[in-house]
Design goal:
The chain is α+β, with helices and mostly antiparallel strands. The chain has three domains: 120 residues, Periplasmic binding protein-like II (D-Maltodextrin-Binding Protein, domain 2, 3-Layer(aba) Sandwich); 117 residues, Dipeptide-binding Protein, Domain 1 (Dipeptide-binding Protein, domain 1, Alpha-Beta Complex); 213 residues, Dipeptide-binding Protein, domain 3 (Roll). The chain is 31% helix and 22% strand. The strands form four sheets. The chain has a ten-stranded mixed sheet, sandwiched between helices. Strands 4-5-7-6 form a four-stranded antiparallel sheet, with helices on one face. The chain has a two-stranded antiparallel ribbon with strand order 2-3. Helix 1 packs across helix 11, helix 10 runs antiparallel to helix 12 and helix 15 crosses helix 17.
Amino acid sequence: MTIEIERRALLQMLGLGAIGSAAIGVSWPAQAQQADAVTIGWPSDVPSWDPNQRFTPDAQHLYKLVFDQPLDQNPKLELIPHLIKKWEMAPDAKSLKIELRDDVVFHNGIKMTTEDFRYTFFERIKAGHAVDTKNSWRNVADIEIASPTQCVMKFASPVPTAPQWLAFLGSFVVPKKYMEEVGVEKFREKPIGTGPYKLVDYQLNARIILERNEQYWGPKPKLKRVTIEIIKDPSARVAAIQSGQVDLTINVPVREVVRLEREPTLAGEINPITRVMLLQCRNDQGFADQNVRLAAHHAIDKAALSKAFFNNAAVPLSVPVTPGTPGFPADYKFSYDPETAKSLLTKSGFSSSKPAKIKFGSTNGQFPSDYDIARAIQQMWKKVGIDAELETIEYAKYFELNRGGKLPDATLYSWDNATGDPEIFSGYLLNTKMPFSAFKDPAVGDKIGKLFGVTDYQARVQGYKDAVKFAVDYGATIPLLQSVQTVVRKKKLSYEKFGNGWVLANTMSWS
């Protein structure tokens, strides 16, 4: 196929050589596919079974099976009612009226009420629980309960994106009474939610088994049993789907999608999603010099990366915002220009014979071709005078390193924004007061931070367009490509596609 030839040509040009796709040995359970069951090969485990604890994008697909969010999104990413029937934001964005459904019960049969909502989004945070929701809901001053189904969220300062966050990372309602009775640690061992499935078996970093919640308040899943096999190595996921041991898997290299879709029983997909492949940059150590950061950006041929690794399906980006979403400045372009990169390095005393030295990190197998992309970038940098020492970072370790300020100078990462809102793209990515930003220079952080309280929608969107252009010109972030999600599945298995890449077992069925 053309994609494989082009890929080999680029890798050979960069001195990498062709990379084989031989599968590693794996011990598998019994053959997949039953009429009322599905087995899915997934690249990473949940960080824990407390869904408020860590903002891990790839865990959201799994959490949404066991827990429910107050609001949800349809496949076009429009906000829709879920646990919340109605909501109304005040004009000053300092309060949000909420009406919950009255027919929702947790897996233990206890009815969900506004007490659980208040506990999740206010009491847990005030109690000092180690949850990431303390960042997204840090401005909640109180949640006033009027009845078991009605309450008002009160904010200390305007939170115009509160509805979006009620459908985003970590915003899953947990049961107050049960969690207080058993404690947080025991809850993680035996979690209960209101979701379409119940957790019945869990083996850390190995297997998750779910069974349908027969008392679910919403549409009943067609499949009774869901098995999630945690398979971190992409070659092993390829082997699993090809051998029939799993029915669906994601995030395998594009070249394997092209190859596997020739199999008569398999279907392959390459779907653009609302994620951004980028380099998380520090503003100290090897990247303290702005000239070096900008040179590193100018030296990357993003079109070549898309062509070689994604069959041109991954759109090259100049900003960490996906096309078609609010906050995307269509008039802005950051050039691929190796000569400009060399000139910038020369200004700071660097050259091919005296290269700037940086540390460079990448996951391996977390998203399609991640480590291959990192090695290609490493060679592009070498040609202009940047010597990057490449290391592999475990996906779960990335969050710990970032929070501790210990990421390498540049780290290849896939930034998720299931909502498409600009605050959750550049806002959370570059706000220095948030734990997600590796770049801590207030010249960028203060400009971004001022936009969080802007209540006028058009002014807020324009503000993010201007701020993100400034951030890229400052060298605060190096956007690469719009992420794509690769999916390989058995042809008889169908699922509902979402613009943010959610692959939800409760939407799956066999034909």
